[in-house]
Amino acid sequence: MNKVRTKTTAMVTAALAMLLAFLPAARAEVIDRIVATVNGHIILQSDWDDALGYEALLNGRTPGQFTDDERRAVLDRLIDQELLGEQMKAASFQHASEAEAGARIAEARKLYPEAVTARGWQSVLGRFRLEEKDVVAHVLQQIDLMRLVDAHLRPAVQIDSKTIEAYYREKFVPQLKQSGAGEVSLADVSGKIRELLTEEKVNELMASWLQTLRSESKVSVPIALGSTGEGEQTR
Predict the structure, then answer these.
(1) Is residue 39 situated within a structural domain?
(2) SS3 category, 233
């Protein structure tokens, strides 16, 4: 009887030891959580962390250097991307190519001297907890979203000659004098001024478009991420 009891006790002890050995790994596992929903589509904490890493990579910073407001701004951009992504399904434009993404990534690599080699670049990506495919996916999405915005909004922007002349007279010339540079004729810079004013107008229209999309959508963000209280905040 004692032998049976001893054998049973040994088996239980061994089972408990195996369980205890497993517990630290279980505790170390990070459980993802929902940080926002956009018309039923979920944005996870891991999506947010990935976006923070990507923006930090492009700006030569670390995710830990982002303020709370900057972190929230990244989440807001993820929400905007989700809203624009829904509009993309019905839009017609030329999608970004792998070559275009590669060219932009090459520019980002110049921020990091060690990234001149493939191994060095992988080391850089590792610091931001990113993989090459993640960066490529982000760049492709950004290019596509900007082309969507251009296709949807740019045709509506018309900058006439009077607006260009007014900008030249009221802003460009005073800035030129302040910098001490020589005179530049309107004819020499009218094209650049038109481009600048067009971009400004497109940005204004995009902000208005996103505001409209949000008002027509169900966007929920846990209040704990943006203010005090419990539950969820729906906008």
Answers:
(1) yes
(2) strand
Is 226 part of a structural domain of the chain?
Answer: no
Note the pLDDT of residue 27: 43
Q: Which residues of the chain have pLDDT under 50?
A: 2-10, 12-29, 226-235
Token pair for 116: 């001149």
- The answer to whether the CB of 109 falls within 8 A of the CB of 103 is no
Token pair in block for residue 27: 């505790």
Q: What letter does residue 40 receive in the DSSP assignment? A: T
209: domain range? 157-219
Tokens of 49: 């962390």
Q: Residue 176's pLDDT is what? A: 86
The one-letter amino acid at 180: G
> pTM for the whole thing?
0.74
pLDDT reported for residue 30: 54
> The domain that contains 134 carries what CATH number?
1.10.4030.10
Q: Which residue has the tokens 């419990």?
A: 230
- Rounded Cα gap, residues 24 and 213, in angstroms: 45
